């Protein structure tokens, strides 16, 4: 009888994680909708269209930028408007992580993360390639998906090697040793 109880307990302990994983699984139709959402978002950014980008957010959204959070759709639109006055965006692409989207609480709230890149150019100077990582929380409003929270960072460019350092190291290595 104890063995039977132990086996039932073991089976339940294996079944609960499997059930929890299935509960967090996002259906394929929703994944397709989120992929289409991402393409439209990238297109709006490539068009430098602040109003179109702001329309992707809920009224009470939080947009966490590299300089701090921005609260609400109107403020997010202003943030993009100001950014586009300083920088022209092009070649915006994003790539979702290999981890699938996750349900947060209910199927109407989805978390997703990945990498992004964009080319920006100021009024003077050469284009600059910028990239980083992002995370978002989507929420369903009617039949549409909106961003409730979006965060991003900028991945720093690799540091340039110290000028001449490699050359000096190679010279030190190749010096003949004194055998006196």
Total tally of structural domains: 1
- CATH C-level name: Alpha Beta
Shape: globular
The helix content is 25-40%
Give me the Rg, rounded. Answer: 25 Å
Strand proportion, as a percent range, falls in 35-45%
Distance between the termini: 86 Å
Oligomerization state of this entry?
A: single chain
Let me know the number of strands: 7
**Contiguous runs where pLDDT drops below 50 for at least 5 residues:** 6-22
Encode the helix/strand succession as letters.
Answer: HHHEEHEEEEEH
Structural class: alpha+beta
- Overall pLDDT: 83
Query: What profile does the largest beta sheet have?
Result: 7 strands, mixed
What does this structure look like?
This protein is an alpha+beta fold and 180 residues long. It has one domain: Nuclear Transport Factor 2, Chain: A (Roll). Helices cover 39% and strands 36% of the residues. The protein has helices spanning 2-24, 28-46, 50-54, 73-86, 165-174, and strands at residues 57-65, 68-71, 88-96, 102-104, 106-121, 128-141, 144-152. Strands 1, 2, 3, 4, 5, 6 and 7 form a seven-stranded mixed sheet that branches. A hairpin with a 1-residue loop joins strand 4 and strand 5. It is globular, with a radius of gyration of 25 Å. The N and C termini lie far apart (86 Å).
Topology, element by element:
Layout (H helix, E strand, L loop, with lengths): L1 H23 L3 H19 L3 H5 L2 E9 L2 E4 L1 H14 L1 E9 L5 E3 L1 E16 L6 E14 L2 E9 L12 H10 L6
Parallel strand pairs: 1-7
Antiparallel strand pairs: 1-2, 3-5, 4-5, 5-6, 6-7
């Amino acid at each position: 009888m104890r063995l039977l109880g132990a086996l039932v307990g073991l089976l339940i302990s294996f079944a609960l994680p499997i059930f929890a994983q299935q509960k967090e699984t996002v259906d394929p139709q929703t994944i397709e909708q989120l992929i289409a959402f991402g393409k439209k978002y990238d297109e709006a950014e490539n068009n430098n269209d602040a109003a179109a980008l702001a329309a992707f957010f809920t009224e009470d959204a939080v947009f966490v930028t590299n300089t701090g959070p921005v609260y609400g759709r109107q403020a997010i639109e202003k943030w993009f408007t100001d950014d586009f006055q300083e920088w022209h965006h092009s070649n915006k692409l994003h790539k979702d992580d290999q981890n699938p989207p996750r349900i947060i609480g209910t199927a109407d709230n989805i978390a997703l993360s990945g990498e992004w890149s964009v080319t920006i150019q100021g009024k003077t100077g050469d284009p600059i390639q910028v990239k980083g990582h992002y995370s978002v929380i989507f929420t369903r409003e009617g039949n549409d998906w909106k961003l409730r929270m979006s965060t991003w960072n900028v991945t720093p460019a690799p540091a340039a090697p110290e000028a001449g350092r490699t050359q000096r190291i190679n010279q030190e290595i190749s010096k003949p040793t004194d055998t006196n």
